[in-house]
Amino acid sequence: MKTVKAALLATTIAFSPIVVSWDQYLDDPESELFQDWYPYTQISGQSFSDSEESGLANSSVQFFPDPSSRLNTHHIFDARVGYNTDGQQQLYIVTTYPCEATHRSGETAVLKVNGQNVRFNAACNLINYAYYTIATATGTSYVVNEFKRASTVSIHIPYKDTNRGVPFSAAGFTKLWNSYGGGAL
Q1: What helix, strand, coil percent values describe the chain, rounded to 5?
Q2: Which side of the chain, N or C, has fewer Cβ within a 10 Å radius?
Q3: Which helix (H) or strand (E) holds 62?
Q4: pLDDT at 129 (0 to 100)
Q5: Which pLDDT score, from 0 to 100, does residue 116 have?
Q6: pLDDT confidence of residue 103
Q7: Max Cα–Cα distance, the chain, nearest Å
Q8: Within a 10 A sphere around the Cβ of 66, how many other Cβ atoms?
């Protein structure tokens, strides 16, 4: 696969502007990413390290369709560090997938994180996109440790009848996570 470094500013609805730090072309039909995402043939991303320079707290991945596919949309995913309404430090997985009934009812969803099933709470943001928060302390510990130890964390996110893996860069996660100081007392 060709890997190209880039530095361009991309702005999208409901997502903060990101500085794209890597591009990857999905040109190997045998790869899992190609099989999960075809006809999307290019992904671009930003690591936690890159987002920290701009004052953000996320790792972002964008998938772009092959121009010949006639798809006119791309998908964006963020792994964001923040605080929940109880003041507890949290990792959010934010998508550009439209909300469905299961998101609105607050049901749990199982997302596969680096091969391990983890229970997440599903919800909708203010502009009707789906997002997920880890549902258990054990799940939080596992996912945070994966971001701390691995260079890339693959999270399979369900949508309609697909369950596509999203490769989040973990570069800079530990420093960012630790700088948030944990949950409020």
Answers
A1: 20, 45, 30
A2: C
A3: strand 58-65
A4: 86
A5: 97
A6: 66
A7: 53
A8: 13
